[in-house]
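Exam prep: given the inputs below (a chain plus N-carbamoyl-L-aspartate), describe the expected output before reading on.
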Amino acid sequence: MTAQQLDSNGRLRHLLTLEGMPRPVLEDLLEKAQACHDSAIGRAQDGRQALAGTAVCTLFFEPSTRTRSSFTLAAQRLGADVMSFDASTSSAKKGETDTDTLRNLEAMGVRGFVIRHPDDGAVARLAGVVQPGTCLLNAGDGRSGHPTQGLLDMLTIRQAKGADFSALKVMIVGDVKHSRVARTDLHALRALGAGEIRVCGPANLLPGADDPVLAGCTVGDDFDAMLDGVDVLMMLRLQHERMSEGLVPSLEAYHARWGLTAERLRRAASGAIVMHPGPINRGVEVTDEVADGSQSWILRQVANGVAVRMAALQALLG
Ligand code: NCD
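Solution:
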């Protein structure tokens, strides 16, 4: 996939995954995103015409709130013509394949596609059928990847803790096994040289010990024992399907062992930050007090999402 997303000069052609992305490419995107920050949140006007005349389509085969709206806003803030396709109200309902849908929109002159899909590897597969010059951005595929979420998470950590991650202790907590966010963050944290990565959650919701995504991580299910000295706490959403699958006994039982409370947060490093990709189940992964407290960077992650998506769209289509 790395070969597919970089051209022979090492320039980004599609944004499919952070797995294997060279550190300089990652850092360059983060610096560009930081430079877009004020424009992204409406405080500055620079770059407003950078993609004027370029058509971008958000093509979502799965629901989304933050990712879709922030990609839309990012493309609009760059002056692109933005259209949106929602599988639940389109010909996908009549059985049209995703490839045909994509090719039809491409025939209308769309050059950038932001795609969310329930299948692992779907965006890379679709990248194999588009014309040269058409760019695909993965907005989350199956359990595999969510590169712009990984980038916005890294940008948030840089803003809070500085660009040198070598002394940082970062912990990812929750259903790591089914989380494309966790997988993506793990690739990015390793590429950026994070000092220590801890992965914690119920044993049946952690990837197998032989899964390369856990390489170099400290892994365990005892949240209380693993909190000591942690600088960044990345809490993951507990997906409702895990309850119906019987993987979690009850929300209360989950919260009691893996929920982040103010009391637990006091045991992390002083100045630790709390992150969550959203949507939050309040009272399950985090209490209201923590989600809305002074150590929460959750809404800053959302703001950074617009900046990162502006940077990614410009890197590919600019
Ligand atoms: C995540 C996703 O859909 O991958 N949300 C998001 O994009 N911010 C995480 C989740 O739904 O658990």
